[in-house]
Every structure is written in C-alpha cells, then in structure tokens.
Amino acid sequence: MAISIKKSLISVVSIVAVILFILSIWWDSMPAAYDVETRINNVAKSNNQEVVPGYATTSTLIDICQWLLDKPGGFLANDMTPPGILMDNMPSFEYGALEQIRDLALVMRLDFSRSQSQSTGDKDLEIAQTKLNIAHTSWMLPSAEKEYKDAINALAKYRDRLVATDQTEAQFYTRADNLSDWLREVEKRLGSISHRLSASVGHERYDTNLAGDTTAKQSTETDKEVAVKTGWFEVDNVFYESRGSTWAILHFLKAIEVDFKDVLIKKNAEVSLKQIIRDLEATQQTIWSPVILNGSGFGFLANHSLVMANYVSRANAALIDLRRLLEQG
What pTM was computed for the model? Predict the structure, then answer.
C-alpha cells in the first residue's frame, strides 16, 4: 500500500514537473517584430479614428504595454508561483522593454505634449507616466499589472483626445528639438546596453568619467583602471534585458518614423532612421542555441552578447549622427 502511494506521488510530481517545463518553454517565447505602420492603420480603422501627429507613437506605446500583460503567461517579473518564479529570461526581457516604455512615457509627458517649457502638462500622460513607474516586482497592494492597466487606460484617453476635433488640450508636437531630446535618451540607453553586453568577456578600462573637462570633479575618488566583467550567472539576464530594450526601441523608432515623417524629410534624415531600424532588427534574429553562449572574443565558442553589442553599437553610432543632423539649423 505504501509503495503504491509512493509511486502515485512520484507520477503526479513527474507529470506536474513536465507540465511546468512545457509552460516555461511556451512562456519564454520571444516576440517577433511587427509592421508598426500597418498596425497603426488597423487600430485607427477599427476605432474609426484619424491618424494625427502622435497617434502612431501613443498607439505603439499602448501596444508594447499591452503586450507585457497579454503575452503567454502574462507579466512574469512579479510571479510568486512556478514556473514564473523560476524563470529569468522572459522577466529580464520584460524589464528591458519596461525601461524603454518608462523613458518614452516621460518624454511624452515633458516634451512631446508640450509646446514650451512653461506650458501645462497633460493630465492623462502624467497619470500614465506615474503608474508605469511602480516597481515591476510588486505583486499586490497594488500589483504591477493593475498599475500598468491604469497607465494603458490613461494613454488611450490621451489618444482619444488627440483625435477629437472639439478638444485642443491634448497635443503632440512633432518638432525636431522634441525628437532630438528623446533620441538623446535612447542614445544613453544604447550606449549602456552595448557596454554591459561587451562586459560578458571581461576587460580592463580606464576611468574616462571626467575626460574632456579639466575643471570637472566627482564626489569620491575611483580607480584609474577598472576591471569590468559580467558574472557568469548574469550573462543571459543581461542579454535578454538588452534584447527586450532593443525590441521596444525598434518599434518606437518605427512609430517615430510615421509621426515625424515631415521633420525627417525636411532634414533628409529618413534613410538614416531606416538604417538604425535595420541594425536594431538584427538584434531580434532567432537564437538557435538553447543557451546563451559566452565564449571569448576570438575563442572556439560563440559569444552571443558580443554579436548583439556589435549591432547595438552600430545603431547607436547612426543614432548620434541622426540627432546631430536634427539639431542643425
């Protein structure tokens, strides 16, 4: 009798383990890039709305936020039960995308929706930006999912007000200086991503924090040379966080291409933006290896982090050129 019960328990545990394993594989499926312009046109058609300046950017921001909640398994970063609590690739991807969502929401609140530095901010964008900044690991009172849903609703209200002809409070200004401000933030993000990915193999770097300014100072002294290397257990987390960041930036840039089309044409910068998008699309290629390999730079095994860092660095260099082009008179 005891042996029979023991066998039954082992069978049940084995079945549950297999089910959880299959679920974890399904929930770990990375999203594919999609055609933003087609998606925007379909959304506008289904809502019986006109694509006005800001519609594409706002709609894409809503889409990326909605994906966090509606994808297989839902939002996993705050899961307290298996298999979510045991997973780290998708939660890292989520966090990378969430960082870019937060950056764009802030820029929309402070720059895109305001004509001057002393103009009034938009109430719905203020709500959305605040809600998106809850800790992504919060799972109750309130949960991250609830706050993100509230943010999506606020963004949807802002979008509805954008297209309403009888309202003028909600605005989205497609100016070169506004776009330049956001690109400057993206530039910093891509630079950080590239640096973190390159640290997978470890290297010595000089402290260049004060370079270029003889009067610059810092709060505390640091070593002139620093050893930078990502821990072995963190390599895949950094990789997937970077992949999530570049995935979100890729779609936001596609939306910017729609909203700021006239600005880009005037600056003859359309092709520059298309090249950045193409380089970022390369970061989303299918990963054929079951694990993220961390071979040395010229070693026998591949290093997936260095491959992605190459594409990110190329995109960042082109983005710096694009921003400078926009800032020219």
Answer: 0.91
